[in-house]
Structure formats: C-alpha cells, structure tokens
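User: Teach me something about this protein's shape.
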Amino acid sequence: MDTFFHSVNLDPDLCMGCINCLKRCPTQAIRVRGGKASITKEFCIDCGECIRICPHHAKKAIYDPISVMDKYEYKIVLPPPSLYAQFNNLDDKSIVLAALLKFGFDAVFEVAAAAEMVSEMTRKLIAENKVELPLISSACPSIVRLIRVRFPNLIDKISPLNAPVELAAAMAREKAMKETGLPSEKIGVIFITPCPAKVTAINSPLANSKSEIDGVIAMSEIYPKLLPLMKDVYKNGDESSYKGEPEAGKIGVSWGRSGGEAGGILRDNYLSADGIENVLRVLEDLEDDKLQNLAFIELNACSGGCVGGVLAVENPYLAKVKLNVLRKYLPVSGSHLGGEVPPKAFLEEKIQYMPVFKLGSSLEESISIMQKVDELTAKLPGLDCGCCGAPTCRAFAEDVAQGKAKEKDCIHILRKFLHEFSGELSGIDS
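Assistant: First, the predicted structure itself:
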C-alpha cells in the first residue's frame, strides 16, 4: 500500500522550533519553517527518533485506546517479548500472561512463540539457498521502510517472511475460531506495542493486503494496569493456572533485545546492529559491498532492540539485563513449526521501491534541478548547522531548487548579503 498512514504526529502548539528532531531524523523528513517543525509524510518511517529527542514533547505516537478491546466478543492479546523486560524481579513470564487474562482478555498468544517459528523458517531458507545472502530481517518495520525509500538496491535482500506479530495474529485468530465457533469479525486481536512503527505496519502494511491485527495499544499505557494484577497473581499462585499454547523459550524471548533474532539463526556469520545511526552505517556499507560472508543481518531502529522503543517503560539497557535473567529459566525453544507452514508466514507481495526522494517529475526536470542543487551547495558553507530549517546544506539546496525555501533562509548567505548591502549604503552616504 502506498497511502501514507503515520503513527508519529506533531503538535504545533508544543513545538518551539528547536532543531533537535531535525538533526536526528534518518530520512531528513523534518523541516523547521516559520518557527515550527513539520514532517514530510512521504519521507517519514515512523522510527520514533523525533519523539525520543524532542524536549518539548511536541511529537507524539498514535495508537488505540485500551478500550478498543471492548469492541469484540472474544479478545486475544499478543504480548511481545519486550513486555517481559519491563518488570522487576520477573523469573516466570506466566505471571505476566496470567495478569493479562485477569485484565479482561480471553486468550493470550505470545509473539515470542511465533518468533521461534520465524527463526526456524529463516534457518531453513538459508540452509536451502532459497534467498539472496545476506538476508536482512523484516521484523523491524522502520528498517523495511528505510530500505524501501533510501536503499532500493537492498530490497531483494529483505526476508520474505512476515514479522512474528503477523504470524502470531493469524495463528491466534484461526485457533480462536476453531475453539469458539465465532466468526472472525467477533474476534479481536490486540497487540501491545513498544513502538509507533508497529502501529504503522499494522494500519498500512507494505507487502500485505491487510493486517490480521485489530487494535494496537501502547505498552506504556497497559504497564501500570498490569502491575497490581501481577501482584495478585503472584500472591495467589495463579501463574500456574496459565496454560498457554504454544509456549515460547529462550530463542523467542530473546527477540525482545538486539541480537536475539540473529542468535536464533544458530550461525556465527551474522551481524546485529541497533540504533538508527548504526543501522544507516551498516546499510551504506552493505550497499557498497563492504560486508562479506554474512548469512544474516538483524537491524533494529531502536537502541537495544524492541526494548528501546519509545512506548516502552524501562531503560533499554536494564531491560536487556532483565530478559537475560528471564531466559535462564526457559527451554531453548518452546514452539516448532510441525509439518505445515502456518498462515501468514510469508509476505503476500514483493516490497516495492518508493522513489520519494526524486527531485522532479521527469528525468529531464530532475537533472535540471540537480544542477541547481550542485551550484547552490557550492555556495553554502557546508556547516550543516540546521539554522536554515533543513538538516544539511545539501538538503537546504534541494529545498531552494524545488521552491520550498529561499537562499536568504541561510543565515550565512543572509549575513553576506547584509554586509554587502550595508557597504553599498555607506558608499551612498559618503
């Protein structure tokens, strides 16, 4: 789908016109004009970096209210592995899962269990030479969208497998329909998200006709409501009453932190990077053919992996430690594919390049604009200060060439003009 649904919103009333977000955006989607920031929707990949960095809280994530679950007769919740890392002293994830049932959900399906199945399918694809190596994970929606708009030569390396959350949703819905006899429309599948990118992937999927998920609630919203319920579960010993199926083991739970997915490939020749700036360097090196002999690349837009999402609660580095502790009490893997490939295992379509950065509507116009951009860039100081409202001098030159800004928006050009103008006035006065 090429409609630009976005889960990151900007409140102009709170924006103070600082350039913090301007410098952090990986796709140069933000401009500051007239003292206010604006987001170019076509460029935005919903990574949430602007939310993280904005000191005035002018950027906000869009997600469903918790009450979205009330729309359905039978409610299934999909907890991601990063959810377990939000709680102190957790040595049994069944406490969290039982608390979700106490909260009002009728069933729980661990995304971590689906993650183990994706890991198994990935190992098989690589072993049978059915994909181009190195294979890039498709789990992080921001990374997939980043490659789609900035690194089109790498699109063929993206895994053809759906993210675990989509696989979990499809399997959970199919299981619920068989067990309850209810039609699909009366079953609500609700995901607890650590980041806005997942909201975008669900509402505007890139390579699927639609998502199997009916609602997305923020981890930060449900976290305080689960705490007292978890205490009750622990006090009453109710965690033993949770009998989830399928279960998740070390491999699935590890997906919540950076390196977890790559570790599940069970190979040594992998690369794992997290944090959008590190990811950009890896993708540039991969595009330049500098990375050799790799079978798999795991990339996470958030530092620390999904535990570092802007809708998570815990410090991502502490969260990684908590996941490591929780893993000790789990089997290596709790879920396996069996004989059949599950529904929604593969993307329905090939991911398509989206040329949002083209300068003109035709090749001739683009070349003409490019010449203007090169000429203006040569006149600029090359400081990339951001005072013009664009992230770099070249981005500013592109804005000017496209009529979106004026040369004198650059304070250095304006200062030079004022000096020359004042000199002329002095000559007239004399």
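Now, about its shape. The mean pLDDT is 93. The chain has 16 helices and eleven strands. If you'd like, I can walk through any region in more detail.
User: That's plenty for now, thanks!
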